[in-house]
Design a protein that fits this description.
Blueprint lengths: L13 E5 L6 H12 L5 E2 L2 E2 L1 E4 L2 H6 L14 H5 L8 H13 L10 E7 L5 E5 L6 H12 L11 E8 L8 H22 L7 E12 L11 E3 L16 E5 L4 E3 L7 E3 L13 E11 L15
Parallel strand pairs: 1-4, 1-5, 5-7
Antiparallel strand pairs: 2-3, 6-7, 8-13, 9-10, 10-11, 12-13
Helix pairs in contact: 1-6
Amino acid sequence: MPWLPTPREPLLRVAVTGGTHGNEMSGVYLARHWLQCPEELRRPSFSAIPILANPEASAACSRYVGQDLNRSFTSAVLTSRATSNDPYEVTRARELNQWLGPKASGQAFDFILDLHNTTANMRACILANSDCCAFAMHMCHYLQSGETFSLQSVAKMGLSLELGPQPQGVLQADIFSQMRALVASSLDFIELFNQGTGFPAFEMEVYRHCGEEDFPRTEAGDLAGIVHPQLQDQDFEPLQPGAPIFQLFSGEEVLYQGDRTVYPMFINEAAYYEKHMAFMKTEKTSILVPALPPLPAAAPIQTP
């Protein structure tokens, strides 16, 4: 598959965004902390900028106040004419695009790391807009090797960290600490790259989105059943055709009707009830990621 060109200059304009969804508390409180104490995001060659992406939703401890901010960065929304009836998140998306973009421009930030929580049993999950970005895949590999439509699409490159399970509006110490460590490791990787480190080619497993599954519903559109106990909390485990996926309120089982094995994620995610999605389906595959060559030799980079 075709790979996007790898960076040939240091990445100096980096942002870490939390609170894109205002009830995902790890990112909200990390962003608030870093806005007061930004030293943690500094490296010798660059300083990442902390951003509380959706201040009004964060203040209200709600996912959003008008519409989902993380679905508001389409070109149509960003370039449309502003009106007094625009939802808050549309206005905020345009502000962030002007600050961190403009999207798909040479002036955009080099990298955005966007922080999220999920109520699903996904543990530490790294989401990329595309598996064609070798730099992002190398960062994923680096994070995995250590212990340690979306906003990120505004920048030239980016990743989302999705950690759970954590209830909406709740802050858990283990998830908070793990997210903090993953951010630190991500910035360390960028620093290594900026200082001239190259990374060899490697093979990795990825999960590619291939569809969604809605809950069973009545003719009126109400829920007619719930996620089956055998599927609950089985994110990234193989789901075979014929396996039970829902339990109707009447007690009957609904079986998976697909024609191949898939790997579900975001199973019973609270935020996706309104999106009519009980779980997302993915296919597991292996990809060969090309080497990430070192930057051309240059004078050492120091943050002003």
